[in-house]
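Key idea: predict the complex, not the pieces.
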Amino acid sequence: MLLIYCPYCEEERSELEFRGAGDAHIARPDNIADITDEEFEEYFFLRQNPKGLIFERWRHIHGCGRFFNAARDTVSDRFYTTYKAGEPKPDVAAILNGERDKGAAR
Amino acid sequence: MADLATATRKAALTARGGFTDVILTPAPAASRLSLRAGTDALAGLSAALGVTLPSRPKTSASSGKRHALWLGPDEWLVIDESEADLMAASATSGTLHSAVDVSHRNVAVIVSGPGAEVAINSGCPQDLSLAIFPVGACSRTILGKVEIVLLRIAEDTFRVECWRSFSPYVFGMLSEGAADAGH
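Result:
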């Protein structure tokens, strides 16, 4: 069972209390009525589905009920970090370097 | 060769009887309020309700028979065991907030005894050790398939709040856990 750190409860909780909610940091276009169908498709439907680091929204639905963001590895399922909704996206290089340093220390 | 683990055979109705380490009691009726408010309304609401709304995760505050449980950064469950009118009390606060009377939505089970922790942990993934979940700690979490709100009212006593239609399931889960706690 995964333990996920909820930035609002300030504690690691079981994955059973959480629900995934798709990719994070997807900004809704301000001129939503003006954009073309292709642009709308790009914004609304198309996702990268990367192998490795991904930024996602998660919801602590059976806890504080809050949405937050997480940086997760899609291969190992490891959560690198979680942070409150609205906070800026963490630096990808810093996250991956931090992991490499940890690996080297081991 | 390694010894094979053998499970203890348990009769089908074991969980319907009494347990040695755990006592399950349906809690008496209480009035309950689902309260949501911003930080600027906290002082006014606390004064109106007569109990300080906690702002730290997993904490609760009590004043006599009234308890305020932190559920989220702007969400509380207020329980009054003397069935006082919480809606009227919150309405006098003069602050912007949302209050919903959920007195009859929830029912509670009091789980007490030395095996209470084990009984709840049979279906709940949270760490209930005293250091992590001290007396007065509260949390919304899950028990088996349903959502519950836990409140530790004494070292060996918990209040388990659940939605009323889920209560037979919750009581059954806790009974099974209580039967297992003795082993």
